[in-house]
Amino acid sequence: MSDKKPLVTHVYTADPSAHVFNSTLYVYPSHDIPTDIQDNDNGDQYAMEDYHVFSLPEGIAGPVTDHGVVLKSQDVPWVGKQMWAPDAAEKDGKFFLYFPARDKEGVMRIGVAEGASPEGPFTPDAEPIKGSYSIDPACFVDEDGAAYLYFGGIWGGQLQCWTKGHFAKEDYENMEASGDDKPALNARIARLTDDMHQFAEEVKEVVILDPETKEPLKASDHDRRFFEAAWVHKYDGKYYFSYSTGDTHFLCYAIGETPYGPFTYGGRILEPVVGWTTHHSIVQHKEKWYLFYHDATLSGGKNHLRCVKAREIKYDAEGKIYLAEPQGP
Ligand code: FUB
């Protein structure tokens, strides 16, 4: 396991969202910080307060530049605590940072901040995106310019509290449905407005189908059901929705014909790494495709002190993803 070197070693980083902007490879990760808070299923130990941006002008084997703090919790009026996994997007020469955090009432929401450069800084909107909830925003801008925000995460990510159209605090303790007769909770998607600051439509569910039964994955299918860390990329005209299975610690993917899906389960990309969480992104840089991910090797296995890594992925003739070099022991 975890046979690659961390890309960044002077700070702890996690949840890497990688993009190529202006021909340069950038990574937008969470910035993990030490805390005395004990690990729990709430994720209270992930107590992050700001974001850095990193560039890799020569690709994953070259030097990494830290562009410093580009947004911090004190600058966002609605944020209470816990700035979790962010993502970035570019549209019409402007750059956008999407980020989740608990608001002052402890409810996870998603915010947006805008900047003139991929390296930040980013100026946040005063309020979270209207109608947003839960965690792990991932912005996909399609070839026609339409932009979509995917989001959601169960357990500490609170997605299980949003099945009734409002935040149902009483559903928090359940964490998720269980049983072979119930569908799994789904990630969410909404197209963004042209200015990238709001949802342009009602939030919809991202359904993952079993390739055999063509039915939505079941709640009891913890090896394959969505938990958190949504990511979408396009390869050979198809939309790939990838995600973490959380408590079973896999990174998986599913393939669809449109940004909305439904997506048919395709397989695993990465086996469990050192540390509880697994979270990733997939990006093409020059001729190659890369998986950015994290583990907790840099801190000797502390779940909340993680490090970002990258490795090449390939596609077989059927479009199935595999690691260019198999994951080591
Ligand atoms: O980094 C905090 C949380 O841990 C992220 O939002 C999840 O995806 C998991 O990696």
Number of E-state strands: 22
Bound molecules: beta-L-arabinofuranose
Class by alpha and beta content: mainly beta
Helices, by number, come to 0
| Cα shape | globular
Beta-strand percentage range: 35-45%
The helix/strand order is EEEEEEEEEEEEEEEEEEEEEE
Our Rg estimate from Cα atoms comes to 18 Å
State the low-pLDDT regions, or none. none
How far apart lie the N and C ends?
A: 5 Å
Could you give a short account of the major beta sheet?
5 strands, antiparallel
Characterise this structure.
This is Glycoside hydrolase family 43 protein. The record marks 136 as: Important for catalytic activity, responsible for pKa modulation of the active site Glu and correct orientation of both the proton donor and substrate. It comes from Ephemerocybe angulata. The chain is mainly beta and 329 residues long. The chain contains no helices and 22 strands. It has strands at 12-21, 24-32, 50-56, 65-72, 79-81, 87-91, 94-103, 108-115, 123-124, 138-141, 147-151, 187-191, 204-206, 208-209, 228-235, 238-244, 251-256, 263-270, 280-285, 288-295, 307-315, 321-323. Strands 5, 6, 7, 8 and 9 form a five-stranded antiparallel sheet that branches. Strands 14-18-17-16-15 form a five-stranded mixed sheet, with no helix packed on it. Strands 1-2-3-4 form a four-stranded antiparallel sheet, with no helix packed on it. A hairpin with a 2-residue loop joins strand 19 and strand 20 (288-295). The protein starts with 11 loop residues before the first strand and ends in a 6-residue tail after the last strand. The model has no long low-confidence stretch (mean pLDDT 96). Beta-L-arabinofuranose is lined by residues 14-15, 30, 43, 46, 84-85, 135-136, 153, 228-229, 277, 279.
